[in-house]
C-alpha cells in the first residue's frame, strides 16, 4: 500500500513539475536576454487577464495545454503583456506594456505578436514577424498558424 502511495505521489509530482516549467516573462529586458541566449523569437501575448473573455478562452484552449507547452519550449520565449482591470501591477510594467501596445498598434485582445528582438546602442529593436489572436480549433489549429508565421520568417 505504501509503495502505491509513493508511486502515485511521484507521478503526480512529476506532472506538476512538468506543468510548471512553462515560464511567462513580464519584463522585456529579461525576455530579450533569454531570446538572445536561446536564439528564439519572442511571443508577445497582449491580454486582459482578469476581464477579457477571449483571452481567457485562448489561455484555456491553447496556452495552458501540454501541446502548447512543448511547442513553446522548442520555438519561442514567452512574454505576457497584461492589461488587468482589477489586478494590481507595478508602474514600470504598466508603462512597458502601454509602450509596447502603442508600438504594435494593439486595438483588441487577445493579440499575439511574434518578434525578433535585439538591442543596438542601448535601444530595443523589435522586428515584427507576424501576429495572430484567438483561433478556434484548439491547440493544433493555433499552433499550425503560429508555425506558418514563424516559417514565413525562416524562408
SS class:
alpha+beta
Q: Estimate what percentage of residues fall within beta strands.
A: 15-25%
Q: Can you tell me the residue ranges where pLDDT is under 50 for at least 5 consecutive residues?
A: 14-19
* Shape estimate: globular
| Average pLDDT figure | 88
Helix content: 40-55%
Straight-line N-to-C gap:
57 Å
Q: What does the largest sheet look like?
A: 4 strands, mixed
- Tell me the radius of gyration: 17 Å
Count of helices?
6
Which strand order do you get reading across the main beta sheet? 2-1-3-4
Per DSSP E runs of 2 or more residues, the count of β-strands stands at 4
Instruction: Summarize the helix and strand pattern as letters.
Output: HHEHHEHEEH
